[in-house]
UniProtKB/TrEMBL annotation:
<feature type="domain" description="CP-type G">
    <location>
        <begin position="31"/>
        <end position="196"/>
    </location>
</feature>
<dbReference type="GO" id="GO:0005525">
    <property type="term" value="F:GTP binding"/>
</dbReference>
<feature type="binding site">
    <location>
        <position position="192"/>
    </location>
    <ligand>
        <name>GTP</name>
    </ligand>
</feature>
<dbReference type="GO" id="GO:0005739">
    <property type="term" value="C:mitochondrion"/>
</dbReference>
<dbReference type="InterPro" id="IPR027417">
    <property type="entry name" value="P-loop_NTPase"/>
</dbReference>
<dbReference type="Pfam" id="PF01926">
    <property type="entry name" value="MMR_HSR1"/>
</dbReference>
<dbReference type="InterPro" id="IPR023179">
    <property type="entry name" value="GTP-bd_ortho_bundle_sf"/>
</dbReference>
<feature type="region of interest" description="Disordered">
    <location>
        <begin position="323"/>
        <end position="348"/>
    </location>
</feature>
<dbReference type="GO" id="GO:0003924">
    <property type="term" value="F:GTPase activity"/>
</dbReference>
<dbReference type="InterPro" id="IPR019991">
    <property type="entry name" value="GTP-bd_ribosome_bgen"/>
</dbReference>
<keyword id="KW-0547">Nucleotide-binding</keyword>
<keyword id="KW-0342">GTP-binding</keyword>
<dbReference type="InterPro" id="IPR016478">
    <property type="entry name" value="GTPase_MTG1"/>
</dbReference>
<protein>
    <submittedName>
        <fullName>Mitochondrial GTPase 1</fullName>
    </submittedName>
</protein>
<feature type="compositionally biased region" description="Basic and acidic residues">
    <location>
        <begin position="337"/>
        <end position="348"/>
    </location>
</feature>
<dbReference type="GO" id="GO:0032543">
    <property type="term" value="P:mitochondrial translation"/>
</dbReference>
<dbReference type="InterPro" id="IPR006073">
    <property type="entry name" value="GTP-bd"/>
</dbReference>
Amino acid sequence: MAARGLLNLTRNTFAHESTINWFPGHMAKGIKQMRDQMRAVDLIVETRDARIPLSSINMQFERIVGGKDRLVVYNKADLAPPEIQQAVQLEMAKRKQRAIFTDTSINKSVSQILQVAVDIAQRDPMKYPHFSIMVVGMPNVGKSSLINALRRTGINRGKAACTGAKPGITRAVSSRIRVLEKPAVYLVDTPGVMMPHIPDPITALKVALTGKCGIKDNIADESVLADYLLFRLNRFDAVEYVHYCGCLGIEQPTDDINELVAMLAQKIGALRRGGEIDVDKTLQFFLRTYRQGRFGRLCLDDLDEKSVADFFQHSLLDAPLSKNQGQKAKRAAQRQRSIEKARSKNLI
Ligand SMILES: Nc1nc2c(ncn2[C@@H]2O[C@H](COP(=O)(O)OP(=O)(O)OP(=O)(O)O)[C@@H](O)[C@H]2O)c(=O)[nH]1
């Protein structure tokens, strides 16, 4: 891996202003269904993304979960550096929450989740003739994959929940899915739910970069996402993109996204008639390759003590505190979308 100090990488900060206001109807409906079903739920499995252990926290769940038992699952652990696990677990322990890191593609640590359910259920079998787990989380964190992995592990049965690389596959709270015979443990899948408003622009970028809001293409500009990714890769000496793209003709890290796109486009053949570069195709290739984990295992959140403290302070302050505030943010987002739509049609 090349050392940053030896390279001509100059950016120490990344300036970005836009925030994300995106809360489509099925998410609002999903939250309502979760609330309605909460009484019948014994354990909440809150699924987060190990690549963004802080930015994938949805403060909305704090209000829904209430006093229920909760287990935090950091999924896609195969895409994040293993050394973050201890820091995150310590942080969670401070908050009296237990965290498990999973990789659903190989069922890693999935049995630990079932064990937590079994332990609670066996404490009071009369109280829990059937044990119910609700799996919640932001879009695309791997909730449905986790449910399928739990089912494979618990009862050796196949797929029960639909999964997909695009966020938003699950659109409503599912009916109960059996994952263990004795004691009888059931799961319900829920639609991925975004924060109605992500006030911090960099948090919003991280959320978009890890594929949490890909249903709506114009939510985050791909050129900004790719530029932020490049900044982040260079900043952490995570220059495996150079090795990966090396065979594509890129020999050393660059801080210039236009330069990267120009080189990459030639190598992957993202060219239009006349040799013009297909910028969109090249950016999408770069982002997709990162999302597939081919640039190495990366954590986009800073996990030093100050960054973690700042994150929680701001998240708690900025999170919409009431249903009304959430709805207000949703209306503001709708207004913004109408303005953008009108602009794109040159109406204003
Ligand atoms: N590398 C890796 N990919 C995973 C893992 N778990 C899920 N995925 C992938 O992540 C994508 C999203 O998975 P889903 O299970 O559909 O996610 P979801 O949270 O149910 O998505 P929504 O329907 O948007 O709520 C799929 O392409 C999965 O194959 C994991 O542990 N590691």
